[in-house]
Amino acid sequence: MKAIHLTAYGNPAQNLRMVEVSEPNAPSVGEALVRMEYAPIAYSDLLLANGVYFLHPDPPSVIGGEGAGIVEAIGSAVSNVKIGDRVTIPFQTFTWSEKVLAPARDLFVVPPSIDAKTASMLNINPTTAVLLLDEFVKLRAKDWIVLNAANAHVARCLIAIAKSRDLSVAGIVRRAELVAEIRELGVDFVGVESPELPEQIRVATSATPIRLGLDAVGGPATATITSVLSPGAHLVSYAWLSGLPIHLPQGDLIGKRLNIHGFWMYYDEYLPKIRAALTAATKVVASGKLTLAISATYKPSQIKEAIEHAQRGGKVLLEFNHYN
Question: What dihedral do alpha carbons 238, 242, 247, 248 form, nearest 10°?
Answer without folding.
Answer: -20
